[in-house]
Structure formats: C-alpha cells, structure tokens
Description:
Largest sheet: 8 strands, parallel
Strand order of the largest sheet: 7-6-5-4-3-2-1-8
Order of helices and strands: EHEHEHEHHEHHHEHHEHEH
Number of helices: 12
Strand content: 15-25%
CATH superfamily: Aldolase class I
Number of domains: 1
Shape: globular
CATH architecture: Alpha-Beta Barrel
CATH class: Alpha Beta
Distance between the termini: 13 Å
Radius of gyration: 17 Å
CATH topology: TIM Barrel
Helix content: 40-55%
Amino acid sequence: MRKSFVAGNWKMNKTVAEARQLVSELVPGLQSIEAVDKVLCPPFTSLLAVAALLEGTDIGLGAQNMHWELSGAFTGEVSPSMVAELCRYVILGHSERRTYFGETDESVNQKVRAALVHGLAPIVCVGETLEENESGRTSEVVSRQIRLGLADIKDLVDSGGAGSLVIAYEPIWAIGTGRASTPADASKVIGEVIRPALSELFDEQTAQVVRILYGGSVKGNNAAEFFAENEIDGALVGGASLKVADFTQIVQAATPQ
Length: 257
C-alpha cells in the first residue's frame, strides 16, 4: 500500500519572518497526523529557517526548483548539492516553470536525473493546458511528459527505490483558478495514462509503488473527494498550503480510512 503524501508548494510567497510564523502554527497540527507524509516547500530564502523549525519532526522539507549542474557560472541558480544540504525533496517541472521560464521535458529530465544522483526525491509535475484538454490531447501530452521527463533514469530509480520518485498530475487549467478537475477524471488520467507510462519506462511493480499526487485548486473542502479515489495518493497543494486550517484539513483528509 502506498503511503499518502501531501506537499505544500508555497511558490513565491512569505518572507523569512512570515515563513517562521506559518511553520510554527502548522507544526502542532501536522505532527499529530502520522499516517501521511507531509512536506513543506518554501522559497529558497526560507529553507534554512524552516529546516531549523522542522528539525525533530516528521515533516519533510522540499525546494521548488534546482539546476542540474553541480556548480558553475549559472547566476541565480541553485545546485542539487546545495538543495540536498537542507532538503529531502525538490519540485521539478512545475507548469509555471515550463510556462514562464522555458523549461522543457528535456531540461526536466536533466534535473530529475541530477536530483536522484544527489539523493533527492523529485516531485515531478505533469499536466495539460485547457486547450490540450478540450481537444482531447490529455493522454498524448501527459504520457509524453512522463516518457521524456523520466527517460533513462531506471538505474537510479532501481537503486534508490521507487519511493524516491513522486509524480504530481496538475492539469494546468486547474492551477490557481479555483476550477479543479473532477476526482474521477484525475484518477482516470493517473490510472490509464501515468501508471501505464511508468510501467513501460520501468516495470509494473515500480508503476504501482510510485506515489502519484493530484494538484490544482485542492482545498480543505474538496480534498477528501480526491483522496477517496484509489489512484490518487495525495496532493501537491498551492494556495491552500499558506493557510494553516486549510492545509491541516487537507493532510487530515489524506489519512487512510
């Protein structure tokens, strides 16, 4: 059985002082929910402060991005080894990175490989645009993102264990819009597109072990509907992860019934 997993992507929000305040309010409620893996992903500037507050808890820490090179003349970038000093997880290939910063399936693949080499667990995001969804291209787009984004990493996944890889299905048209996919539709994409693609890349056992999250306007009042679907193992949460009550409610909803 796959353990439920909920990650909060704070995006470009919270100063260091604000991050400390939010985490201090989140920790008591989250620590009491032991059946779910919880991860907070603040901006780079707050990683050190948040890491200190999470020490001794069962709450994981993740970065929102990284470069694939270990070091060099890459102004403004952060390397895998820098992230690995503080974090266990790193979000890669988020649609906002693809849309606004020109990331491609190929560059995502380079980052995923680098993350695994350095002992990081990548949370790899895939998802289609509204136009692609309405034109019936969801399967084509999502399977391509899986096949290219996770190409040639079987050896690393095998050595690190399938638990070292997390996938987040985030239909782009549902991110930050308040318009969530239906639980049944999200589950269908995961079960009929993503897991078969993983099976082709790795094997059926790996495909069944990898945890696949849903992301896109997940809130405290709709999370339970998504988690009731067997194929959905948790959520990558955006805006609601900045609200103590909402995020705690989402994590609570992910607890196996």
